[in-house]
């Protein structure tokens, strides 16, 4: 009979606990021990739920460091599968590290690291101890004056042109170390999670929690409960691209639902030509083309944090402005040579975009062949000119060939002449110096093409924040007066914009000459207003009225606030689309097509769909701010795939082509909460186990006596539910 009663009524508290509610205490006739156990269970479950509801504080503005892999290594960070937890300790000066590394009584610690201490020396110390379970890094304001670059000292080493067979004296940055402040942190493997705290107010919330609970007092440790942090960033892929791609491909052979653990970094290059060419045919072998190029991607230690102001935006904005200026010139359709404007994606990761284009040209999968290339001009970090000097870098190895040297000299002369009268002084970087890291190197690997790389640095980068989160508009000295509305800021012409427009003018004039133009070039002039708008859109706020008016209606979603230029694995990324539509706006023409004609141009006569691309864009808001007036833009802008040939060829261990992949993950999040003491946790655990055993026993008895219990209900009211 006792069994029957206990079995029956145990449904009540159990169900209540499962539903997350808190029920009243137990009937008095319960056994002393069982009553106690169940009371603890009920109290424990209620407390657990209220902790979940009231004390866990999710961190909403964070960026994780994730795992990337190449042919041989894994880099980046990860947490354990259920997230890593530790007691928070704020480290604002190096002395604070002692607590974490040696003195603190409550390891493991989650270190809240001040941005100014996020350097190699500190990271080595944290890496070498098991007392650290993770790291949250704040952004230093102002940016570290001594510079900060988690990139390599010798970027893209081994994938450019210099090797033991080609200019061995220049290989591995022997002559010039381009990025001396580079710490290489981005290329290391960390066994704990690292997150960036993007929002100063959230950082303050954490610091407050630390102040209230964790501050060591009078040398003795703080008392429980303590403020803790939990970081989730478990990564599925391990070891290397070879390992993870082989695993995926094996699975896809045997399984319908292969479990993919890593994806190649990939996107699209954007290209267009001054005179339209048949994009599905082949350009005449005799036809010569001048290539202008820049990269459009950047990187930092943290996933999808890549402002790239100097390392990418300054150059591609200048490039876009030059393209606009050239298209406006009256006689460009008469030029003897065509000009191709080329924007490479994924260059940060061992030249993904340019290596693919060269590969496609070699394999006849591109309208141009390498033989069509007359010369190559690349813009690469041009915003931080010292005394207006723009440096011209050439390749000393290919110039040892007489005929290449003659063509390179011609190229340099044309550039120098084009700068006369402009506020840009062009100077040669010197014959004894190799090319800086540049897409042009991938073309040189294939053929001795005459070319030049234009930069604001002669030897080491002027940019002290190469591939870091500090490569922001401030880094290229963009300043706006106080109190401008977003619309006024969009149109405000900064000094940076004026200076980049000068460079664009010089480049456009030089390209005109290179293409065989004989007229005076004084009419070719880049527009500082356009440059201003682009700088604002690509660096400060994508969601501005100009970008809104020039994109397709279904792309509205890509206009977030602060732009980031990471290449990623789902493509095209926002930057690619925006470069595409800005280029179409600046170099295209508006055609009088209806929406239907624009979306299906092949149906209209004379639309020449092989030569042109048509885009139905949103248009600007009418003065009533209620509706937009869409229109059709015709341009020569095209996209071409930027996936490393290594994946096309399934050579995942390639040393010739980029092999970078990004691991997949399930969840990335961070939160803080209070932890009770270890003793309390152990008591909770023991009680939990006791209850488990008890309920198993109870279930067993109920099962065993089910016939007795349920067949003859004693009280009809009790079976109502
Ligand atoms: C670096 O260049 C110097 C000549 O400038 C050469 O003597 C030396 O062997 C080179 N080192 C390597 C590792 O190639
Ligand atoms: C892969 O990356 C690591 C870390 O940057 C580097 O040491 C290694 O040389 C790279 N492997 C290849 C094949 O490029
Ligand atoms: C931070 O808090 C202050 C005052 O509470 C507020 O004015 C500011 O807008 C907040 N900043 C952010 C980025 O939310
Ligand atoms: C994050 O957002 C949630 C829900 O809006 C809020 O309760 C929480 O306080 C936020 N976190 C921080 C650290 O502000
Ligand atoms: C473009 O090239 C394709 C393939 O060679 C050809 O079929 C097509 O007629 C060409 N289009 C034009 C406009 O020349
Ligand atoms: C700028 O150039 C001057 C000489 O022309 C030189 O003294 C100065 O160090 C340079 N500044 C930087 C930042 O390179
Ligand atoms: C040229 O540029 C420098 C700085 O880049 C500036 O100080 C100077 O005023 C400019 N001169 C002209 C004529 O624009
Ligand atoms: C030079 O420009 C004039 C008009 O500005 C044009 O008629 C002429 O064709 C151009 N000449 C060349 C060689 O481009
Ligand atoms: C990029 O576009 C996606 C939608 O495709 C959007 O969710 C995201 O916020 C955009 N990124 C930025 C930085 O604006
Ligand atoms: C480019 O954008 C501007 C501003 O929205 C607009 O006035 C112009 O007509 C556009 N041009 C083309 C070719 O789309
Ligand atoms: C555009 O085309 C429509 C019909 O297709 C015609 O009625 C209209 O006049 C044209 N507008 C212009 C500016 O050519
Ligand atoms: C603005 O709205 C008013 C009334 O809603 C309308 O009469 C007028 O035509 C609109 N103007 C434009 C340019 O759409």
TrEMBL record:
The keyword Signal applies. The chain crosses the membrane at residues 682-702. It comes from the Eukaryota. It is found in: Cytoplasmic vesicle membrane; Endomembrane system; Melanosome. Keywords: Cytoplasmic vesicle, Disulfide bond, Glycoprotein, Membrane, Notch signaling pathway, Signal, Transmembrane, Transmembrane helix. GO terms for biological process: adult behavior; amyloid precursor protein biosynthetic process; amyloid-beta formation; cellular response to calcium ion; central nervous system myelination; epithelial cell proliferation; G protein-coupled dopamine receptor signaling pathway; glutamate receptor signaling pathway. GO terms for molecular function: aspartic endopeptidase activity, intramembrane cleaving; ATPase binding; endopeptidase activator activity; growth factor receptor binding; protein-macromolecule adaptor activity. InterPro entries: Ncstrn_small, Nicastrin. Residues 64-237 form the Nicastrin small lobe domain. Its main location: membrane. Pfam families: Ncstrn_small, Nicastrin. Residues 1-48 form the signal peptide. It is a single-pass membrane protein; Single-pass type I membrane protein. One of its GO terms (cellular component) is melanosome. Essential subunit of the gamma-secretase complex, an endoprotease complex that catalyzes the intramembrane cleavage of integral membrane proteins such as Notch receptors and APP (amyloid-beta precursor protein). The gamma-secretase complex plays a role in Notch and Wnt signaling cascades and regulation of downstream processes via its role in processing key regulatory proteins, and by regulating cytosolic CTNNB1 levels. PANTHER family: NICASTRIN (PTHR21092). Belongs to the nicastrin family. This is Nicastrin. It comes from Strigops habroptila. The gene is NCSTN.
